[in-house]
Amino acid sequence: MAKRSHSGGPSGSHRTLRVGEAIRRRLSEILSRGEIHDPDLTALSITVGEVRVSPDLRVATAYVLPLGGKDAEEALQALRRNRGEIRHQMGKALGIKHTPEMRFALDDTFDRMDATRRMFADENVQRDLHKDDRESDEEE
Asked: 53: exposed, middle or buried (C-beta count within 10 Å: 0-12, 13-18, 19+)?
């Protein structure tokens, strides 16, 4: 079975992972320093959790979340409105031949972590986990 990468396909190349991380860092800097001249965007504190780059390096999807998860849709709209300027800033910083098209999506990592915590806190799951622990102890 093929190993999966951040892109969901077969294991990503080192280059796509490197470019994705470079974009994530630079995008974080751009947003934290207010380098995009849009008052709606500069008013928000946005976390860039991950950037996934397509295997051909043509598309980069940044998974973002405003501080506290508030105004998420407004943040996405502001980022999408300014994608041209953001891409231009990326091109200057990355020094690669073609700057990927920038796309933005909400980062649902924290929501998934909360759902996992709730699942493990469920009394039925706890009972099953403790049952498995007891069975493992009896086998030893």
From this structure: buried
Is there a single domain that holds both residue 65 and residue 23? yes
Q: What is the pTM of this model?
A: 0.70
Are 20 and 60 in contact by the 8 Å Cβ rule? The answer is: yes
Q: Which residue has the tokens 């091109």?
A: 91
Domain range spanning residue 133? 108-140
Q: Enter the DSSP assignment of 10.
A: B
Per-residue pLDDT tens digits for 35-89? 999 998 888 899 999 999 999 999 999 999 998 777 889 999 999 999 999 999 8
Specify whether 53 is located in the same domain as 66. Answer: yes
If asked whether residues 82 and 99 sit together in one domain, one would say yes
